[in-house]
């Protein structure tokens, strides 16, 4: 009987770890939505207006078709890997994609992290020409995979 008492906690830990691996995107989505719901209507409106002013290219006269927002930190390993991806996208899609890095460590960035409900870094968000989100990914995302979204969406 003592043998089973040892295996039960180990089995539960393994099960919990596997659940995190399998459902990590669902968990991140849930946390993101919860963070967004916690914002007041005034805060959402203020940030939404700021985003529209910067990234709605129909209204602000910029010629970009997309905005690639990278949420991260300079101290994060995966975020540093994404720096290469950002440079590649910036070079390959010059004038077509506006590449923006929002650093978690900068106090003024906090409101954008909250508005988009960013729960983990790095997180990539793609906005269309009107400043509307159409794609989101967390973790490292290779440039060639990211590029497919710039050729598909119009």
TrEMBL record:
Membrane spanning stretches: 6-23
GO molecular function: protein-disulfide reductase activity
Keyword Hydrolase in annotation: no
Domain Thioredoxin, first and last residues per copy: 45-154
InterPro entries in the record: Thioredoxin-like_fold, Thioredoxin-like_sf, Thioredoxin_domain
Keyword Transmembrane helix: yes
Protein name: Thioredoxin
Organism: Butyricimonas virosa
């Amino acid at each position: 009987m003592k043998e089973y008492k040892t295996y039960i906690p180990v089995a539960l830990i393994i099960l919990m770890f596997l659940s995190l691996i399998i459902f990590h995107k669902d968990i991140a989505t849930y946390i993101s939505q919860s963070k967004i719901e916690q914002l007041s209507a005034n805060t959402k409106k203020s940030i939404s207006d700021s985003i529209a002013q910067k990234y709605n290219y129909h209204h602000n006269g910029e010629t970009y078709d997309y905005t690639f927002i990278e949420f991260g930190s300079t101290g994060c390993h995966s975020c540093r890997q994404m720096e290469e991806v950002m440079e590649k996208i910036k070079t390959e899609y010059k004038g077509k994609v506006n590449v923006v890095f929002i650093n978690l460590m900068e106090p003024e960035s906090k409101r954008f992290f909250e508005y988009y409900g960013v729960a983990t870094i790095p997180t990539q968000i793609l906005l269309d020409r009107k400043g509307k989100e159409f794609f989101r990914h967390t973790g490292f995302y290779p440039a060639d995979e990211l590029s497919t979204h710039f050729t598909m969406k119009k």
